[in-house]
């Protein structure tokens, strides 16, 4: 609660009288005995800490309180200066604290206890005679520094606009904080109590102010807009819920997708196995080619050695000029022939390279075609084992580019004799199955149309029978009502006849045997009424039994039709 509202509820004082302190006096709230034993943990006798405290005190007194004070005043302080600074800080902390003692020593320690200074028990009033002395100044400086810190906290709290300050003018237009409610309520109580003390019982102005703060038009509009927004969100949520309830559960789609992904995974595993086998075959062919290359290199080395041996033999021979000339001519002829052969070998090598490029391209195209063929087999589910009667046929094909025999380039069943006829047979079988399925679908559609027509006829029959049953029920109700009415009439008539009979007996006893004939006539009428009532009861019971039997037969017939229709639908599906 605000510090400015402690005197509410008491008789107002004159303006010349100071209000009581919100912190209480020295005898108000006594500190617990445990606090009396607390020792001041601050390093008050350290010069650096004292310099910091003096700087904080000087800055606060100059900037916040606007006092004309210098650092020299705090360095060598006088008793009157200390009292002036203490009074300023204390009144700033508690403006209502009474400072009316003639001696500063009489109010110093009680004032510290009133503001809950935790180390007031360590203060000696004798220090105030010479506050700048070495043994007293650290503690007295600590008192001023603590008061400055408390004043800073109070200023921060006063400027924070916290709801606990209980300021009605700071209450926002929209509030839910209990402190805001308490502020308005306390302000209302304060104003009305003040008016009541002036002997006025009309609180219209206070009521209007309170209502305007509690129920402003802007707040109502804001609440209305929030309600509309929440309703829109609720409608959107309901529409989304209806869509979710109308649509199929997402788990079904996820299960179906999971099955498809598992099937694709199995197909990919099979394709990867084929690629791995193809890789192993290519690796084996490369190894074989490398071995042949090494053998050819060894052969070339052997031929070079043979050539060097023959050249050494020729040099060692002693030939005539004619033989040398002939050999030179033969050498030139052989050289030209060798050049021609080298040229032919180069041309042949170029042709071989071109053919190798062409073969490589064709092998790549063939591999792509085989990959496409394999993917088609996977999509068409024609991987072995095939359905009957092709369970012994394997339609998969593999390319072996390292084979020297052209007949062995393609590994698998014969394309012309086995693969192509089998695929044609499978296609024909699929077309036949499709035509059969289409025929069956048309047949099922016709049967469904017939069933729909029969259902409509049965529904019409059921409607007619329901109408008949309703009519019979109405007739039974009419008969029952008529029987009840007649029974009531007969009962009333019987009661009347009994009364007449009793009266007749009484009259007969009174008048003698002259009324026996009248009594017998009344008895006959009574017996006729009883027989009529019994006959009406029997007719009513028979009509009810007949109608109940017809209703039961109708229900049994409808149940039999529905059961036959369900059995027929289950057998067709």
UniProtKB/TrEMBL annotation:
- The segment annotated Disordered runs over 1-25
Q: Which GO terms describe its cellular component?
A: Ndc80 complex; nucleus
Kinetochore protein Ndc80 CH domain span: 32-155
Naturally occurring in which organism (per UniProt):
Candolleomyces aberdarensis
* Stretches assigned to coiled coil: 220-247, 293-358, 434-539
Give GO BP annotations, semicolon-separated: attachment of mitotic spindle microtubules to kinetochore; cell division
Described purpose of this protein according to its UniProt entry: Acts as a component of the essential kinetochore-associated NDC80 complex, which is required for chromosome segregation and spindle checkpoint activity.
Q: Which InterPro entries does the record match to this protein? A: Kinetochore_Ndc80, Ndc80_CH, Ndc80_sf
Where does this one sit in the cell?
Answer: Chromosome, Centromere, Kinetochore; Nucleus
- Where this protein primarily resides, as one coarse class? nucleus
Keywords in alphabetical order, please: Cell cycle, Cell division, Centromere, Chromosome, Coiled coil, Kinetochore, Mitosis, Nucleus
- Per the record, a Pfam family? Ndc80_HEC
Family annotation (Gene3D superfamilies) = Ncd80 complex, Ncd80 subunit
Protein's name according to its UniProt entry: Kinetochore protein NDC80
Instruction: Note the subunit structure.
Output: Component of the NDC80 complex.
Signal peptide as annotated in the record: none
Q: Which family does it belong to?
A: Belongs to the NDC80/HEC1 family.
